[in-house]
Records
---
Amino acid sequence: MRRCMICGSEEVFLWLGGSIGSLYQCTDCHYIGPIVLETDAQQPFADQFMSFWDLLEGGTFWSETGISNQMLFQM
């Protein structure tokens, strides 16, 4: 089962495919990109999935990685 790497939705479909790679599209958040999550789980994913954007908005991403906002903008 494929899931969107941004929102965790199961509504991910092959958007463009060819000999050099594939792009997938999420119909829920409109992500288009080459990276999706592959899982065998048939259970609801919402309890297990914390998107990157949720971590950024909540501020926990920065504390978990040890990167500060000031440090990021100095790079």
---
Amino acid sequence: MDITVRVEVQYVAPENALIRDVLQMFRTPAWVRFMVRYISPHLKNAAPADKSVMDNLASWTVDSSSSGAKVGAKRAAGSKRPISSVSSAGTCAEDCVICLSELQNGDEFVSLPCGHQFHLPCIRSWLKLRSTCPSCRFQFRKAFSGSYAVRTLNSALLLKQEHRPMPKEEILNTCVGRETVRAVVNVTLSQIAAHAKQSQYPCVLNALMMHSNGDSFTEAAAADTALAKRSSGGDEETDGGNNNNNDQSRAKRMRVA
């Protein structure tokens, strides 16, 4: 199973660094190691429930119309009202702690294996973000478990507003030394078998620049623009092909534990 994580990070560029230097840094093993350390806490804190748990929600749905008859008898006998019961007045024994609304007779709700009860849409949304019961923290199977290897890491350097009118080549040569630059990073991780932890896996690193309006480009695009001003259409096509080959050679491969 693959996991895609999207985060925005801040990075203080080294002294005298240009934007093109930052892009090159985004393609180094050191950047991969930094991002692995950065996203690990995010994956641990935001651990949704496994797909099998989500699939079981339908089988845990409580039939409120049939549960109501059982409640009156149990309460008449003086026993404690079970969490999964529905009162004869048409409301459940407890509120849904997710939306803080009563579980009404006729509502579609779920009784989890731990016994706590929630609206079906509420608990479905909850388990997409967390893998514990909202009431008792009963731990369900997590969607993210085991070992993962970074397969792709796409970094987009966010440009400032003043960069919009500048030529692409000039943007690349802009000094950002000791400045805090921002980047949006998309990391794709693939689960690996326990016996293959020491194996090596290819890791493809891509880096580009992105304007505030969403337009993005790479160094190759900047070079094409500069060449277009000096070359004919035929030369431009030949140079473009060479740039594509260079992009492929810049893909980094490394093992991430």
---
Amino acid sequence: MATATNRTPSAATNNVRNANSKKTEDWKQNLHRPAPDKRIRTSDVTNTKGNDFEDYCLKRDLLIGIFEKGFEKPSPIQEESIPVAVSGKDIIARAKNGTGKTGAYLIPLLQLTDPDKNVVQSIVLVPTRELALQTSQICKELGKHMQINVMVTTGGTNLRDDIMRLNDPVHVMVATPGRMFDLARRNIADLNNCKLLVLDEADKLLSMDSNEYLEGLIRLLPDRRQILMYSATFPVSVCSFKDRHLHNAFEINLMDDLTLKGITQYYAHVHERQKVHCLNTLFAKRVELLAKKITQLGYSCFYIHAQMSQQDRNRVFHDFRRGECRNLVCTDLFTRGIDIQAVNVVINFDFPISSETYLHRIGRSGRFGHLGLAINLVTPNDRRSLYQIEEELATTIKAIPQNVDARLYVAEFQMSDQ
């Protein structure tokens, strides 16, 4: 005969529960968090639903990596993206540069990766080598406690080295389209178990230069796969791409306006003869000449452009990220997705013709809701482009004042009282 048991918890049971609760809190206490960032942040990243990363039932080792990376709370694009991506849905997401898009796809990617399966499970495609290096590094940092192997591969590097690295287990590949397609079509990279494809800076990947490789790569993936697309801007071709390759995609659009709220934009009228001028040389040469002129003025300066060797580009990229030099002269090569928190000021020496290029350039400052400054050197011939960009982006670019507020570009003056 069954007898009813007393359901009142015993003292021993309560002690166990209290111990478990204490353990849950202990892992947070033992985190090696970076110092909190006390700079002022704009609503681009603070206008959230109030969620925490713990709300998404993420693996403990992933949460540790997230907090030790310095992520405090999910940004709006992360709130919208993480739970949907973890559920397995396709996503088309449009959000401003510098608002956390990389974390929005890397966190669910790592959550969905099984380190016990020694196969390629995810691919992240990006348009440039520098962005590939940066993205792979962030992926490694977020997943550093998860035993997930991340490999970066780009054009301009030794194919034989990639072959050797793929002899060892690789779970996640971060790549440029041409090199990834080359490895896949040669059966060097086995994609039979690759169920997730991420397109970062998707507008650039859908351009004529990369689209052929992208289409070829998708044909080599399993039929049952998930595709996540992220960008600040999307071309018309995204509609036909979505119809061909995505299934009931979840659409995210956080572009209530196009420019980051924390960036103050100025223009200064100049004559072309007042700028370092070299009409009959390649634009890359113009970069070197400008860097040389800046150095002659007594300022330390790095430069980077597409015609440099990959080894030299990597060296400049890493040295600038480490803060070994405060000034960098670059072509549009550097405007896609690169996130260097110390960059507060962008100077457009050559004013861009298109609003898309302008948006990506100035987006190197004001990252993740911080304040930034964009200064445009505008010749009389540039005035039409200036007015057109203001109209297309629904923004205002003001004449530069005699004295620029130091809070816009000096980090020490950007601290909040909290």
---
Amino acid sequence: MPAAALPLSVLIACLTLFSACEKNPFSSPAPQKPSNETPREVKKPDAPRTGPLPMASTTEPGSVGTLFDKAADCPNRYKCEALDDLYKMIEGPRGREVVTAAFDLIAGGKIREQDRQGKFACQVIREWLLFLKNGNALDAQTGTWCMAQIRRALKTGDAGFTGSLQLLALNAGLEGAIDWVEEDVTGPGRTTGKACAAGRFLSGYLKDFDHARRWLKNAGENGLAAAICSLHHFDHDFFDVERDELPLLRKAAGVPKLAGEIAWPLLDHVEIHRQDERFRAIAGMLRTHPDEQIRKQAALLSTPEK
């Protein structure tokens, strides 16, 4: 039986419905052919930052000199960003640049050792040398360079830096540091006070009494001052009381009009050993000293402690 023909209106309606289903987003997707490509990872959005934003580095290339100025203006040196930047830089590739700037500050002659810039300059140099020494990177060439920088800085800088830089060189074990400090004992034009300070500095770094013997033999009053001043800090394992210490003290105490720069360190040393009659006898040798205060102290120390 032949099928009845569909009315034209019904046919149009069916075609319209079929077209709508193809465009419907909720209809099932057509199956896709499998692919060998790795699906691209979809990047998730960053989580919102909850902490403070990281601080930008304040150390710009070429700004080393200004960091010392900023450090000097810090109200609290223990919370000083500029000083922290300098300390970080000395452990990096610009370490020598920072240290050179510190020496330049001293050599400029515009700052003193007790100024904040002066203290910071010495601290930066000391920390750099310590960093190198602890890392076994303080070689002879670097030590020679540093000694040359120290001498350059002191040639035009404040003389007050001398003691700090001498101790710095001795602590770092720089080649030639002991000979350099010893120049204040044996060099021409040195004062008795400088010789005494040099003896005191060197006493902690010498491993025998040979230097003191040479001072006594060749450096006159300055040698005597350095030797006396070295006793107070010298390791007693490196010299003998009967052979070295007592003869030295007797020699100094027997000098007529002994300089106060020598007499006072001598009496200070005797006071430590006041319970020993041999040392009290040496104090008694100064009871006729021209200086009244020295005579009084000598009289006190020449008697047993009560």
